[in-house]
Amino acid sequence: MSVKCAIDLNIPDIIHNYGKPMPLSKLTASLKIHPSKTCFIYRLMRILTHSAFFYEHDVTENELEVRYVLTDASKLLLKDPPFSLKYFPQLVHDPVIVNSWIQLSTWFTNDDPTPFHTANGMGFWDFAAREPKLNHLFNEAMATDSLLVSSMVVEKCKSVFEGLESLVDVGGGTGTMTKVIAESFPQLKCIVFDLPHVVGDLQGTENLKYVGGDMFEAIPPADSIMLKWVLHDWNDEECLKILSNCKEAISSKGKVIIIDMVMGNKKEDRELTETEIFFDMQMMHDVTENELEVRYVLIDASKLLLKDHPFSLKYLPQFALHPGILDFAAREPKFNHLFNDAMATDSLLVSSMVIEKCKRVFEGFELLVDVGGGTGTMVKVISESFPELK
Ligand SMILES: C[S@@+](CC[C@H](N)C(=O)[O-])C[C@H]1O[C@@H](n2cnc3c(N)ncnc32)[C@H](O)[C@@H]1O
């Protein structure tokens, strides 16, 4: 959410255009925000700096304030190509997607194919066909990724395309990837094949055509087929169907080019593995079912989510998903209850430590008021330990 907010406020581009480390006051003054909000920018920047989206330039003796520069991660959030991926954070934080995440646990209790179905009553592709805004955002996000990947593919994997006469980019979106390939290999006749609502009235070029259709029905014939970021959207059975339609479509000496994420590639690389796993969760949520058989054990963090654990914090993750405030809680008993239970679980955890480690803070007192004490969990534990305290 903080990354989306930074993009919405144009922070990466403002720092980039400043051309040198940008002081916080200058950054704040450049933003189109309400004057009452200027004091919060430091907090937004602090979490984004901590998460390596920005870097705090070393403060010298003469400087009184922090200055920011972009990192490799925030360079990907700039408005202009070739490396802009700014639509991705926008897409994954779109209310339609966030609302489906909230249905994750409900999805586990029903037979819907994905949490997206549970939240929206239909699959992602059907929904995109009816909702031009989401369709546009999704296609833009894919296009920016394709622009980034295509430059690498054309540079590093040139030999894959050499000698080919025709190529169909199946599920090729709005054709960004194929456009780069078609420009680099002018003799190659290219087709971008995707659902009709995606390719719609898009205009081709001399060696690039758009064709609308369904890859589960039939794929236009060619001597090579490219599937970029397509197979990860489908389960094994569906992938077999797509691949057998590819086989039908290509000549005997043709080839299928698959560009996709490979899971478990470098297990020792924590960041890479984290990216793969997040991506897999996004796919499970949006579009596919998974079949996995592994065994798990609880670690200290997951023990805190046990229902009957003395230190249960199970209400906190649920509370975190509610866009609520205290006024709202006063009017909404369900949210009020959830909020109070979340606070109470935290108080139970903290009170046991307070009593054990800070006993003498309470010794000798007669009267204690727990201001903003919620439903009193903390004070109950204190009053049991200090029966003389009112
Ligand atoms: C994850 S996107 C990848 C887009 C593009 N290949 C890229 O990497 O930028 C998957 C694409 O598959 C398309 N798609 C989904 N179902 C399809 C179907 N039945 N037939 C053809 N294309 C389909 C979607 O519209 C979408 O453009």
TrEMBL record:
Cross-referenced Pfam families: Dimerisation, Methyltransf_2
**Gene3D superfamilies assigned:** Vaccinia Virus protein VP39, Winged helix-like DNA-binding domain superfamily/Winged helix DNA-binding domain
Task: List, in alphabetical order, the Gene Ontology terms for molecular function in this entry.
Answer: O-methyltransferase activity; protein dimerization activity; S-adenosylmethionine-dependent methyltransferase activity
Q: Which UniProt key words apply to this protein?
A: Methyltransferase, S-adenosyl-L-methionine, Transferase
Q: Which residues form the O-methyltransferase C-terminal domain?
A: 101-286, 325-390
* Residue intervals of the O-methyltransferase dimerisation domain: 1-80
* Keyword Methyltransferase (UniProt): yes
Gene Ontology biological process terms, A to Z: methylation
Respond yes or no to whether keyword S-adenosyl-L-methionine is given for this record. Answer: yes
Name it: O-methyltransferase
List the source organism. Sphenostylis stenocarpa
